[in-house]
Structure formats: structure tokens, C-alpha cells
């Protein structure tokens, strides 16, 4: 893992040495990002630049002689102060909050005693996207995150959500960096699947049966199906045309006449087939033996939105070695808690020729890498979170990035929690019951005051693919618990023994057929391997200190809401 510890520093050095932009991609007007200007303020003073962004605040001064604009382009949290004279452009059009502008001017050093290090004196206004202040839904007043959930198409213009977006972006970039630096290959796993990874059954179904049924019903209403008499008449025509062909052949008629007669027979048969097809058309969902007949569905079988890419990415782990997938997953769970979404992103690595200890090592190393990456690359946004959301956010990242994680068995964790006397838990604690969020947070925030990895869980509360331990009661599973959110990562050594895996699938009440391909990995060249899944939104929650997962997903989906 030594190579992983220095990966962030190595990447930073490489980025500093390389050009950060492709000159061929420079926009025609040469727009400069506000972040670039503010980071090199002294070097930019006296230079002419073009900037574009959205007005955060605007006010006219000097009895309408000029206006101050606070401009933000999303490249960083800070705004660029812009001064526009009335002779350059209509100030009334520029000052409303939310107005988009593209401006050209000279960067000046502001007067002594002001907080800005540089400001733009505008000479030309190149483009303006007007805003009607009376109708703009985001006023300059402080807005609650709950209010902003009703305006997901605008909320990225606010300081909090834009900061979350940049933090999320850095965590995604850090994820790919970490796995690349450690020899993993990125695999795109399917979003549509025919197997249930978790065995929970809370999956969104993918089907065209309803749309096809509506289509057929509409077709039948507009063009009623033929009657039996129409079918019989068409059959008589086919019979007559067939007899005509036979008669011509018996007379040894010319080839031209026979070909013509065969052509008429073919047309008659096609006409009959179309009539029979329409005659047999029936509205509604197709059924067979009292159940929906998915053989008529798009994929010829039941299909779902994936709850995890793990099973599929295992196929590549059993060929390429160390791999990972990073993509959207879905769960049709009717939950309205602050921790659950119907659509969420998962980071799921799989490691070949590895056991549970290797799994825990990689999980700890990865989480530490993410925390250090944010401290090194996203400090301005993290400082905003400390000031406005959670005072301990940066302290928490430092703690996790520096301290070794505590590792305890599930049995030990239950013993510790059963002995707690200073707190009464809402959920009971006993061996064989899954730990609730309050238990997880108590372990990491109160007892150990650092991240905790709990391992060897009862098999009855874990998925079928987790390797059964020799005691017959537990599986080689582990969860990484962190302050603020509780479980951040769930992982395990996978069951590589064919007979044991088949038995576990049956014990869980699942059919073997959809997992036959998964069992093939054990039939042919089975290998010990392990993996884990990190809930990406939970990592963003942990980093930012925000309380509701709906505020760290750009377009959150949950029961009753799927905006945009």
C-alpha cells in the first residue's frame, strides 16, 4: 500500500508539471475562469480578459453612474468583483441576481482596505442572459436546503450546492486516480440486469409490456380486428390460388404464367398471415398459467435496474485480476429517511487472489486517500462547509486520513454495545441482529473516536455470495464505519466454493437459474477473491457534514419525486 499513500502527491506533481488546458480547446472569445484569475491575482493585474458567469449580487452606485457586480462562474466558491459604467451597458439589465454575462475588460488592483485582491473594469458587455427579478425563484435571502429541493434545476447556483458539486467531482476524480495508481481496471457494468445481487427483491422492473399493451389496445380501437368470416374468405383465396398453380403445372404452362401464379399465391398467403396476426391480437398484459408471461417482454425474461454491479464485475476480476466499477444503482425501497435514495452511485472494486484481510486493507487505504485528496485539492470548499454546515468537517477528514482504523469482530462490537450504560438505543442490540446507524455511530464517535471496521457478521443478515466461515455461523464480511454517517463501506470475501455457494442461494429462497453464469465462475477456474462497495453519496455526506443525502445528489430520486 506504500504506493497508494503517495499517489495523491505524485498526481499533484504531475499536474503541476503539465499544461492544464489544451490550447486547441480555447474558446473563440478566450474566456478565463475566475478561479484562474483569483489564484494568480498579482500576475493578472493590468491584463485584458474575458470572463463569463452569473451575477450573485448587483447594485447600482453613484446615482446610477456605475454598478458593482459579484460574478461567479462555478470554477470556485469565490466571486470576482466587476465594475460596469452606465455608458458601457444598461445597468438595470445586469444587476438582477441570476443574470448571465460575458464581459471583456481590464483587471485592476482595487483600493487599499478592501477584501478583493483584483477586480474587473468592464469595457465591453459581449452577452447578457436576462432575468426577471420578480419571477426568479432564488431570491438573495438565505434559502433552506429543503426549499432548494423544489428547484433542482437552479440550486447549483447557490454556494452550498455548487460547493457540494465540486467536492463530489474531486471525490470521483480521486476514486479513478486511486484505483489506477493501484493497478485496477475500470469496467462498465450493466444498468439493466436479470439477477438480484442482494436478494432483497426491492428492484425496479424494466419492461415494455405496459407500453406494448397500450399500443395494441390503441391499434385495435382504431382498426378493429378481422372477423372469422374474413379469415375463412382469405383461406379460400389461398386455396384457389394454390389450385391454380397446381393446374398450370399439370398443363406444363409457360414459366412466365407459373411464376405469375406463384406470386399471386405468395401475396394471398401474406395477406392471410397478416389477417390471422391481427385476429389473434389481444389487449392487456400477456399471461401464462396465471402469471405474467415475460417471454413476450423486450428481453424475453424479467429484467431490472441493477442494485449493484458487483456480480458482473466479478467476471472481469476472474480474468483481469483487480477491477472496479463506478456507476448508478437503484433500489425500489419506500424509504423517506435522510440516508436513502432510489438512485445512488456505488464504487465497487473486486480483488482476485485476495481474502478478507486484503479487503479491509484496500478499503481503509481508499478512504484515507479520498480524505487526503479533499484536503489537498478542495480546501476552499471544505472551509465553506466548516463555516456554514459542520465545524468539524475538516477535522474529521484529517482524523480519518491520519489514524489507523480500529478492527473488531461483530461479536466484540455487540458485546461493547450491550455494555453501554450512558445511552439508551432506539434499536435493540443482540447477536444476530444487524447494527443500526445509531450503533455504528456510537462505536466510531464515542467508543473508539475514529473509523472502525467490523468483520465476521452472522450469515443470516448478509448476502448469499459472502464466504461462509468455518464456524458455520458467520461469514467473512466487513463494514467500514465512520463518524457522522455510520456505515460507509460494505464488503466481503466472496464464496469461491461451488457447493457452498449453491446451498447459500437456495437457503436465501432464490432460484438457481438466474445465477447459473455466476456459478460458472466457480465451476471453471474458481479463485479466492474479495471486494467491497462504497456508497458514493454517503462519502459526500461524510465529507461535507450535510445531514440529508438528497442534498448531495445532483438530481435525487426518492418515493414520489423524480424531477427532471
Automatic annotation (TrEMBL):
<keyword id="KW-0067">ATP-binding</keyword>
<keyword id="KW-0436">Ligase</keyword>
<dbReference type="InterPro" id="IPR004522">
    <property type="entry name" value="Asn-tRNA-ligase"/>
</dbReference>
<dbReference type="InterPro" id="IPR012340">
    <property type="entry name" value="NA-bd_OB-fold"/>
</dbReference>
<dbReference type="InterPro" id="IPR004364">
    <property type="entry name" value="Aa-tRNA-synt_II"/>
</dbReference>
<dbReference type="GO" id="GO:0003676">
    <property type="term" value="F:nucleic acid binding"/>
</dbReference>
<keyword id="KW-0648">Protein biosynthesis</keyword>
<dbReference type="Pfam" id="PF01336">
    <property type="entry name" value="tRNA_anti-codon"/>
</dbReference>
<feature type="domain" description="Aminoacyl-transfer RNA synthetases class-II family profile">
    <location>
        <begin position="323"/>
        <end position="554"/>
    </location>
</feature>
<keyword id="KW-0547">Nucleotide-binding</keyword>
<dbReference type="InterPro" id="IPR006195">
    <property type="entry name" value="aa-tRNA-synth_II"/>
</dbReference>
<protein>
    <recommendedName>
        <fullName>asparagine--tRNA ligase</fullName>
        <ecNumber>6.1.1.22</ecNumber>
    </recommendedName>
</protein>
<dbReference type="InterPro" id="IPR002312">
    <property type="entry name" value="Asp/Asn-tRNA-synth_IIb"/>
</dbReference>
<dbReference type="Pfam" id="PF00152">
    <property type="entry name" value="tRNA-synt_2"/>
</dbReference>
<dbReference type="GO" id="GO:0005739">
    <property type="term" value="C:mitochondrion"/>
</dbReference>
<dbReference type="GO" id="GO:0004816">
    <property type="term" value="F:asparagine-tRNA ligase activity"/>
</dbReference>
<dbReference type="InterPro" id="IPR004365">
    <property type="entry name" value="NA-bd_OB_tRNA"/>
</dbReference>
<keyword id="KW-0030">Aminoacyl-tRNA synthetase</keyword>
<dbReference type="InterPro" id="IPR045864">
    <property type="entry name" value="aa-tRNA-synth_II/BPL/LPL"/>
</dbReference>
<comment type="similarity">
    <text>Belongs to the class-II aminoacyl-tRNA synthetase family.</text>
</comment>
<dbReference type="GO" id="GO:0006421">
    <property type="term" value="P:asparaginyl-tRNA aminoacylation"/>
</dbReference>
<dbReference type="GO" id="GO:0005524">
    <property type="term" value="F:ATP binding"/>
</dbReference>
Amino acid at each position: 500500500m506504500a504506493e497508494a499513500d503517495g499517489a495523491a502527491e505524485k498526481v499533484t506533481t504531475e499536474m503541476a508539471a503539465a499544461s492544464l488546458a489544451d490550447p486547441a480547446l480555447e474558446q473563440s472569445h478566450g474566456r478565463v475562469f475566475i478561479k484562474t484569475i483569483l489564484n494568480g491575482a498579482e500576475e493578472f493585474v493590468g491584463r485584458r480578459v474575458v470572463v463569463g458567469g452569473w451575477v450573485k449580487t448587483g447594485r447600482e452606485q453613484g446615482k446610477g453612474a456605475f454598478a458593482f457586480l459579484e460574478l461567479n462562474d462555478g470554477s470556485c466558491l469565490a466571486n470576482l468583483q466587476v465594475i460596469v459604467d452606465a455608458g458601457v451597458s444598461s445597468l438595470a439589465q445586469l444587476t438582477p441576481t441570476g443574470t448571465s454575462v460575458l464581459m471583456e475588460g481590464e483587471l485592476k488592483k482595487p483600493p487599499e482596505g478592501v477584501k478583493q485582491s483584483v477586480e474587473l473594469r468592464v469595457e465591453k458587455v459581449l452577452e447578457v442572459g436576462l432575468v426577471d427579478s420578480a419571477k426568479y425563484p432564488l431570491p438573495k435571502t438565505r434559502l433552506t436546503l429543503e426549499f432548494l429541493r423544489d428547484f433542482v434545476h437552479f440550486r447549483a447556483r447557490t454556494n452550498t450546492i455548487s460547493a457540494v458539486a465540486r467536492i463530489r467531482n474531486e471525490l470521483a476524480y480521486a476514486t479513478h486516480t486511486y484505483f489506477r495508481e493501484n493497478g485496477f481496471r475500470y469496467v462498465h457494468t450493466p444498468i439493466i440486469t436479470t439477477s438480484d445481487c442482494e436478494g432483497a427483491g426491492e428492484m425496479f422492473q424494466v419492461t415494455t409490456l405496459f407500453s406494448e399493451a397500450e399500443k395494441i389496445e390503441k391499434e385495435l380501437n382504431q382498426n378493429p380486428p378481422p372477423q372469422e368470416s374474413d379469415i375463412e374468405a382469405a383461406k379460400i383465396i389461398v386455396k384457389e390460388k394454390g389450385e391454380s398453380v397446381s393446374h398450370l403445372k399439370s398443363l406444363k404452362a409457360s414459366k412466365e404464367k407459373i411464376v405469375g401464379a406463384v406470386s399471386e399465391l405468395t401475396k394471398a398467403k401474406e395477406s392471410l398471415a397478416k389477417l390471422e396476426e391481427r385476429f389473434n391480437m389481444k389487449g392487456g398484459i400477456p399471461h401464462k398459467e396465471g402469471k405474467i408471461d415475460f417471454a413476450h417482454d423486450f428481453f424475453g425474461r424479467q429484467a431490472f435496474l441493477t442494485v449493484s454491479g458487483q456480480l458482473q464485475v466479478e467476471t472481469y476480476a476472474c480474468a483481469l485480476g483487480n477491477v472496479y466499477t463506478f456507476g448508478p444503482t437503484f433500489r425500489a425501497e419506500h424509504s423517506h429517511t435522510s440516508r436513502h435514495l432510489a438512485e445512488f452511485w456505488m464504487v465497487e472494486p473486486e480483488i482476485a487472489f485476495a481474502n478478507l484481510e486484503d479487503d479491509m486493507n484496500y478499503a481503509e487505504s481508499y478512504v484515507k486517500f479520498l480524505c487526503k485528496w479533499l484536503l489537498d485539492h478542495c480546501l476552499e470548499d471544505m472551509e465553506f462547509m466548516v463555516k456554514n454546515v459542520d465545524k468539524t468537517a475538516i477535522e474529521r477528514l484529517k482524523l480519518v486520513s491520519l489514524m489507523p482504523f480500529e478492527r473488531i469482530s461483530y461479536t466484540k462490537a455487540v458485546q461493547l454495545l450491550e455494555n453501554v450504560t450512558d445511552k439508551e438505543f432506539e434499536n435493540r442490540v443482540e447477536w444476530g441482529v444487524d447494527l443500526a446507524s445509531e450503533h455504528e455511530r456510537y462505536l466510531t464517535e464515542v467508543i473508539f473516536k475514529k473509523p472502525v471496521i467490523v468483520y465476521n457478521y452472522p450469515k443470516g443478515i448478509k448476502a448469499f455470495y459472502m464466504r461462509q466461515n468455518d464456524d458455520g455461523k458467520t461469514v467473512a464480511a466487513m463494514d467500514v464505519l465512520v463518524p457522522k454517517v455510520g456505515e460507509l463501506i460494505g464488503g466481503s470475501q466472496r464464496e469461491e466454493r461451488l457447493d457452498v455457494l449453491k446451498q447459500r442461494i437456495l437457503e436465501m429462497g432464490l432460484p438457481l437459474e438466474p445465477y447459473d453464469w455466476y456459478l460458472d465462475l466457480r465451476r471453471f477456474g474458481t479463485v479466492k477473491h474479495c471486494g467491497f462497495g462504497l456508497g458514493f453519496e454517503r462519502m459526500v455526506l461524510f465529507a461535507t457534514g450535510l445531514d440529508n443525502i438528497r442534498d448531495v445528489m445532483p438530481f435525487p430520486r426518492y418515493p414520489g419525486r423524480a424531477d427532471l
